[in-house]
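Help! Submission page says 'invalid entity' but I think these are all valid:
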Amino acid sequence: MNMKLNFGIKILAIALVLIASNFIYSLWYFEKDLQKYAPDINVIRRVVSEKADIVYCGESSNISTFKNDTSTLFISQILNALLPNQKVIDFTKKASHAGIFFQLLKAIHEPNNVKTIVVTMNLRSFGPDWINSNLETPLQKDLVLLRSFPPLVNRFLLGFKNYDTTPAKQREKKYKWHLDHDPLNRAKNFPYATASLWEESIVKNGNKRNKDLNTTGIRELASQYIKSYAFIINPETSPRIRDFNNIVELAKKRKWRLVFHILPENVERAEKLVGKELIQMMIENKNLLVNRYKKLGVKMIDNLELLPNEQYIDQDWTSEHYKEIGRLSIAKTIVEALLP
Amino acid sequence: MLFNSLEFFFFFPLVTLLFFLLSHKYRWIHLLLASCVFYMFFVPEYILILLITIVIDYAAGILIENSDGRRKKIYLIISIISTCLVLFIFKYFDFFNENMVSLSARFGFYYPKRVFDIILPIGLSFHTFQSLSYVIEVYRGNQKAEKHFGLYSLYVMFYPQLVTGPIERPQNLLHQFHEKKVFNFQNLIDGLRLILFGLFVKMVIADNLAPFVDDVYGNPESQSSTTILSAIFFYSFQIYCDFLGYSTIAVGCAKAMGFSIMDNFKNPYLAKSIAEFWQRWHISLSTWFRDYLYFPLGGNKVKKARWILNILIVFVVSGIWHGANWTFVIWGTLHGLLYLLESIPKKILKQKKPSTSTLSGILKIGFTFVVVSFVWVFFRAENLNHVRKIAYSLVHNWNIPSTLEIPNSIWVYLLSFVVLDTLLFKTRFDKWCSTISAPMRWSIYGILIFMTITCSGVDNYPFIYFQF
């Protein structure tokens, strides 16, 4: 009995220590930690305080500008300029994706004035390259303090690394496994079973079809196009599909109008370097997304083939970074979709 | 599974509770399964490697006990070679090949480059040494061969010390699995105290120093000499707190269930010499090398030249044990040379008793700390070129302004640790807590809990010794 009482007193004492700790932490330290480890809180607060009508979720495609651009406005800023009666606030994080957008959107306090959510749908973010990226760790870490637990619990979770901490070497291994094993030969007569085999063939024999592939840099670029886009989205297993589904659910709950816009990809260069089979694969993936989310009531914008090669900033790597005219064209398609 | 993870936060109480709820007959199964789960949180398939070494040394132990003379020795040698072979394949194969390639190129013959490039199984060197310790002790007749395969597996796999030690001796640990453990409230309290202290030193001290040290070591060329110097000393505390943290949590977890495992550290930075440092740092490894390498080589009961060689062998092997890199070899060699430099004059001159004044003691502690800190550079650096860059920047960059700011909080954490570490001289946190008044004790708990939650580093730095 004595031991039980002793134990009970100790448990009570620990509970008191924790309650006092939460009070002290919330009062003096939490805000400092939020600014340091979850700076997105400021955008979330702006959405509410500035009465945003539209929240634009994007990654580096939103904010990348070219050195010769006459206007360095971001896509979201152009959107704001084209819709002067509506306030657009953007969630922009480099290398971000739907999983991150979902957490940020969930953290928007209620009540708020938000009516529409525009989410970029980056085709590459569905592939193993992006899913197994090392940037996932810092992206996930930034979200921990935004969870809806008491401040001390959130800080505890952050300290105990309750976010994806998969080591770089394991991610690399997983990524390579997907390249080697994810089946591609669903289409009839498609000669390559996996992305690795396709890439190997391009690196070894691609120059017979395309002389440019004799150059090392170009060969690497062709190889990168395969690694970035040669995959078939499996709606049952894709974590990205799950993330977009979560956004759809959240939007339903919060009564937000939802717009997904599929970002333009450099299909012109991809076709030239790798061949039309790759474009076909990209289009099939895009169609899957459009059909799937249209059925769920989402307004879909298909910009996959919107821009020509010269509107892409990075000519030596796969990216969704657009020059001024490209950004303007994208913004216009979004405005069109938003107009009644 | 990491000790400083949310999973462990649930794992530990559950495993401890179930341990006491189950009857003694089933506890080994429970602990073994828990240990498997703990290990499989890293790379699940690597448990098969563990199984291989367990089977080899379990069989070897029985064979050694049942034979004598030459045959007994042969079994021991087979067991040692096969256990070390696993270690060699997973840890040293790439290093060996890389060096063979460069060596063959230098002498003009062809050696094909083969790269294994696999993720090193966590704690491989630790459980390999624990296994070796068992067969050697059975061979020496100090330990009876364990007939119960499950209990022997548990000796190698006991989760608190599975991945980073302390490397236990069979005489100390194995019999404890046979004993019926009765729940003891004081053991639980002591265990929890040690876990709290371990989490504090790892999460608050080591993990807050790590980003600063990483930044400096990651780009030494652009750092000022003072920044480099700070990083060198900070690394000394980082590695100590990191490893001390793990070992203390390990001892605490075992203690909560009534198991006693050895302490791995005794205030190493309060050592007055390199020899004393090695009596206080990673004690389970130092004593392993003493018992299973230094003594068999003849220890100090040989001629001086041979003794010098013995010392160097032990330190070089200890360096290699840490990692497949020349930096570790040099780190070990330097410690060996420093040890000799300190010991030879004493041996030759038959020095009088050293001065015992406080000032002289403080100076010796300071000097030893500085020397050990500089030698850690080899341990932390990625390769010898990296060491060269650090040394160059340290010597030449006195005029470069410091670009990295050290947050004031780091000094507070360090100071609080130094105070605690000094207070714990010749004692341990759990024992020390029992000697102070309840209000004082609870204030310390409160501060440690608060700091561990709110001041812990937020980036993921796995325990440094995991890589060994």
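Support: the input was valid. A stray whitespace character was the problem, and the output above is from the cleaned input. The mean pLDDT of chain B is 90.
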